[in-house]
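Sat 14:20. Reprocessing the chain from the morning session after the first attempt stalled halfway. Input below, unchanged.
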Amino acid sequence: CTRSFHGVKVAFAFDTPLTPQQNVMQRVVKAILKRETALLESPTGTGKTQALLSSCLAAQRHLMLQGQKVGKIIYATRTIGQVKQLPGELRRNPYRALAAPLASRAHYCTNDAVKAREGDNARLSQACRKMAKAVEKFRGGGGDVIWDDQNPHHERQQTVGCPHYRALSSPQTATTLHATRPGCCTSSSQDIEDLAGVVNMDDLRRLARGDEPGHEGACAYHSATALAKRSHIIFCPYQYLMNPSIRQAMGIENYLEDAIAIVDEAHNVESVARDGGSFDKSLFDLAQLEDYCTRRQSVRGNSVSALGDVVRRLRTGLLAAQEVWCGPARDDDDDEDDSTKYPCDISMAKRQRFRVSPDERDVVPGFDWGAADRRPTTVGFFEKFQLSPDLLNRAAGEASVVAEEARNADGDEFIIGDQLEGLAGCLLLAYQQRTHYAICCRAWPNQSCERPKRFRDSLHSQDLQRLSGTEPAWGFELCVWLLHPGVVLDDLAKKVRCLVLASGTLAPLDQTERELGIEFSRRMATKALEAKHVVCTKRQVLVRAVGSAAFESRPPVQLMGNAANLKKDEYRLALGAAVVKLVSRCPGGALVFLPSYKVLSSLRWTWRDDRLHLRYGAERQGREVNTILRRLERAKGTVLFEGKGDGGDATHEETIADYKRAVARRGSALLFCVYRGKCSEGISYNDDACRLVITVGIPYAPAFDHLVMRKRAYNDAKIKGGLALGMAPGACDRGVMSGQAWYATQAFRALNQALGRSIRHLHDYGALVLLDARFAD
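Finished this time. Tokens:
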């Protein structure tokens, strides 16, 4: 069907778009035509993605036909898993458009030998660059092989570089992909499922693997970046759009002029934008960066003099923090009184008494700056570390040159180059926007950690050689944290034609708008959209709260899912008993959401512990103890747990695929997920894949996390106003969220995202159960 909005005819994939979809399309078209920003809240399951695709493609085509300048559509979403889903959504859309899904080399690599040899993503990326340079060297006549582009896998050049990169030069490569497909035009209904112009990540990987060894196809990563240059729409994770250094490295910076930027699943965009202007660098990191700058300066003269000075002053400042924390360094035969207590002694005593994890950090006294909570302003940091604006400007310029040269180098320098560019750029931004930053130095007992950090063995600089390979008792890091996402978002909003943020959980909308920055708010001419859900809440959704539960014949336990209770065996067993009762009475798939991976791991251990169950009155069934985990397996068959994706854990994609297969095969399964995890946001569990969602607790961030405390204090300070925040005397910003409101909003957005996994379309239905006494009250 077709609808007209602001003079633009928008073709839609289905016969009749829902009311929320029409609202979204109307707002997006208006924002694109009038160069505005837009904030759209449309509940999960209302077809938001199709509405966004149809409206932005229609407006792009309309402007092209009128001869107006319009750039690419950059459609950013939260995770790589969601990026993989978007080309499938575009195939269902009645518009044909050249599309390119962007992702890292690690996600695209099909060279199994290199992946097995290199291990981590950084090493794999560097190996990829080296092999690409080797091929280009031979193609340019710099090797002892006469290169044949017509036959990239000829036996005389088989040993050069990566076979997938060699295949890029093949003339078949261009025709294999969608280079000759028509541009942005409507298709008939019979063509919707047959769009050769839309490739997803799996398509590119399949083409890269080829039919058999020796006939490999073109590299999926380089194919995607080549497609991006001529595509109408780019799909990517929104870190690629929000983080200035990643944006530059992926080439997206080149596409921003007059671009239509769509950020889906934008409820996390504030934290991602703040991360884009922040960094944490340990003493170990700074020693490595300083060593690189010193070696480069000895070879090339003063090409990095300012950059080297900045890194050296940062390391010197951290050494000063170390002296405050641990006391002055002294020889073993020094007779100084050992009874002197330094902050490190007090911290260690407190850690031992309260069993604090060694990974927890402490702020070094006197090395804490910010515009709120009675801290010295961040100007004090730049003065103490002797970082002038002129020095920072020169260092940022040098870092850009270093990063570009490092990307083309033969060695492992590109990682260092990217780090230096990010560090210098972030420091300059922190100076320019210093009222919106918090800066501190933190310490942790390095040798008490499970994996203590060491200085690199290959430090060559004269000042650093004595540190090579050493493992200090305490580690130190410099934290530069951006507290206002508008600093990054304003810069992005100024570069693009239109910026649209869409999600199912953006409320409170007016205060969210104020969080997003001055430029975003200024260009937002229309009030934020708050669309309604399309399902009947009385007939299709059952919502219940459970405030208490009992294990076996023991007294009921109040289900208050806070950190203290989650450590108690009695609470864990009562919680497990409640989950067993609920999932055994519900058909289809069931999802249970937990506050963290640590909680998930502890519950999993508790629920399979035979001795613990016997102690609390569990019975035996034959030789086996009737544990919670065995009861869950009898009730649902397959029980899966979301992993972090590292070590021996399955990836979230494998876990979701196993879960959906189990539901399709047996009609039921159970998946334990983590709030804000990759199984919890933006994933569709349609129909029987999720008939029940159970949430445990409220996913508040750790209240005493240093960054959380500073963000809360910053928001409270903006409401009070003052010169420290760059405001005029007597001025304040009462429209911004208070620190407590911001803290609660982040938690309830994560909770609402989890609850939204059940209802995915107009005819879907399910039950939502909140296991927490705070909701039962």
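Residues 178-196 have pLDDT under 50 and may be disordered.
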